[in-house]
Amino acid sequence: MRLLRLGENALFASPAQGLVYRVARTDAARDKVEKELATARWLLAQNFPGLAPRDEIPQPLPAAGRLVTFWQYVAPADPAPELADLAVLLRDLHALPTPDFPLPALDPFPVMRDRLRTAAVPGTDESDAAVSEKDLAFLTEACDANEAAFHDLVASDPDAGLVHGDAHRGNLLRDGDRVLLIDYEAVALGPRSWDLLPTATGVDRFGLAPSEYAEFCALYGADVTRRDEYRLLRTVRELGMTTWLMQNVPHSAPAAEEFAVRMASLREGDHAARWHAL
């Protein structure tokens, strides 16, 4: 078994079993975990190319104060999924009907505030040294400054519907001649523009070629950067990306260095400063 990813969840692969173990941080995440499983099952019923849960195993499974879910293992394969694949998958996802089970309204703020509260809890040398009070205060104030406007947008947006919530190339897998859209933790109802942000900000933040972004927009059928809500949505998305990275600062020197880069650009209002994916 090997670690695939460590973030909101820990993902472990067991190729011999054909399984991926997805371990939530706490068993308090049951509603979110149940939503992920329901979403996966519903997408498969819609013939959408998603990742299959291994439902022959009873799940979610409580284990040592955490919840574990079991998913089909898909071995890495070439060619790697491209932004064109993401554009087509998002176009098709956004064309699906509203699911027949409850979904929350898109709201990244509770997760961000939980991260900030956790980072602010003293008690270990690592946590005390990892993120400064000044950084935590800035991020908290940025959340305060944007939360109400974001909620108003979600409530009033005429284009609201099913959104993946974390739509980037890292959540694509090639399975034979198909590309799958995976990771349903952030699935919600909200502005579909939200799913276009990771690619749009890729040009400024991560060095994505403008020509690749233009192809993405052409395949999807819209350019989120031309919409009135873009600046607000981008600000909230970048706060989410930064607070996500913040969780790994105590355990990773590269994460600490990148966190400092992101904090400097957010403080300075520098929307073109280069960020690095970790």
In helices, the fraction of residues equals: 40-55%
Largest sheet: 5 strands, antiparallel
Written as H for each helix and E for each strand, in order along the chain, the element string is: EEEHEEHHHHEEEEHHHH
Mean pLDDT figure: 92
Structural class: alpha+beta
Low-pLDDT stretches: 124-128
- What count of helical segments does DSSP give? 9
- The structural domain count equals 2
Report on this model:
This is Phosphotransferase. It holds the Pfam family APH. InterPro entries: Aminoglycoside_PTrfase (IPR002575), Kinase-like_dom_sf (IPR011009). With 278 residues, the chain is an alpha+beta fold. The chain contains 9 helices and 9 strands. A 5-stranded antiparallel β-sheet has the order 1-2-3-5-4, covered by helices on one side. A hairpin with a 2-residue loop joins strand 7 and strand 8. Helix 3 runs antiparallel to helix 5 and helix 3 runs parallel beside helix 8. The radius of gyration is 19 Å and the shape is globular. About 2% of the residues have low confidence.
In short, what is this structure?
The protein has 278 residues and is of the alpha+beta class. The chain contains nine helices and nine strands. It has a five-stranded antiparallel β-sheet with strand order 1-2-3-5-4, covered by helices on one side. A two-stranded antiparallel ribbon has the order 6-9.
